[in-house]
Design brief:
seven-stranded mixed β-sheet, alpha/beta, globular, four-stranded antiparallel β-sheet, about 290 residues
Length: about 290
């Protein structure tokens, strides 16, 4: 059995095998070249309900450069998000904020235009980080993990940590969350924006992506945060690249995960699996 990246139980069950697929962003340099294909399998942990890719591609392959950068996307929800962050965390011109996976710095720029001055970013891709740095932003071109967190920052440096459309890409969730805990002040706030997998489950949407190794709902996200000492104080959904889930959490050593809704979560997952099987049978029958 495969170990769950969230709860670490050796119980992850195969759910859907999409076969071997090429990387979406890796375009060919010449017509005579061929795509390299990778295994694309979705699994579920029956203990915590977490949906995840059981085989994933090394980050060094996926994130050297991006095909598109965030600044090219229409993000109409950003100004509201900034207002929500300010009202829930007390973010002001004296606060220190770091964005993990800041891409080309478009969100940091919006914060700067809103009067937030003490801004830092982390971005692993060369093309996006270069754009951000050329904007005059304080951005480090590196992956965010415990080693880089300790090398770049002091312990408990920031009041607010933002990570938008990043957590779904992270293969080592424990290392990522421990790194967040290292740089975030004891009473600090964590702002997460991720694709909401409830949208996939509700609408039977099978357009998954090899870069997204984790498929969170609010149920599984709360479990991850509780395991690492965070309590969610606000969450909402919005339309951005499909359905997006926004959660704001605070460091809370007393936080505990709850499995009260596990049966309902697994029921949605089983329906997702069954309908995929029915769909395949429909279109492969003679």
């Amino acid at each position: 059995m495969i170990e769950c990246r969230l709860c670490h139980k050796q119980e992850v069950e195969p759910l859907i095998d999409f076969g071997k697929q090429p990387i979406v962003h890796n375009l060919l340099d010449a017509p005579n070249l061929t795509y390299k294909k990778y295994s694309f399998k979705l699994g579920v942990c029956p203990s915590c309900g977490f949906l995840q890719l059981t085989d994933y591609i090394a980050p060094e392959i996926l994130y050297e450069n991006y095909f598109t950068v965030s600044g090219w996307k229409n993000q109409p929800h950003v100004q509201r998000l900034i207002e929500v962050i300010k009202h829930t965390t007390g973010l002001n011109e004296n606060s220190k904020l770091v964005e993990i996976g800041c891409n080309d710095g478009c969100f940091l720029t919006s914060l700067k235009e809103d009067g937030i001055k003490n801004l830092t970013g982390i971005e692993p891709t060369k093309d996006a980080s270069t754009i951000a740095i050329n904007k005059g932003l304080d951005v480090h071109n590196t992956f965010f993990n415990q080693e880089t967190a300790k090398n770049i920052f002091e312990k408990e440096s920031f009041d607010v940590l933002v990570t938008r459309q990043v957590l779904e890409h992270i293969a080592d969730l424990d290392d990522f969350m421990q790194s967040i805990n290292f740089v975030l002040k004891e009473d600090g706030f964590l702002v997460i924006e991720i694709p909401d997998c409830d949208g996939n489950l509700e609408y039977l949407d099978y357009t998954l992506w090899e870069e997204h190794v984790n498929y969170f709902t609010i149920f599984t996200l709360k479990q991850l945060l509780a395991r690492h000492g965070f309590s969610v104080i606000h969450h909402e959904t919005t339309l951005f690249s499909g359905k997006a889930l926004i959660a704001i959490a605070v460091k809370d050593k007393t936080s505990k995960s709850s499995a009260q809704a596990l049966d309902f979560e697994l029921m949605k997952v089983r329906k997702f699996q069954t309908q995929w099987t029915n769909f395949c049978l429909l279109y492969t029958s003679p």
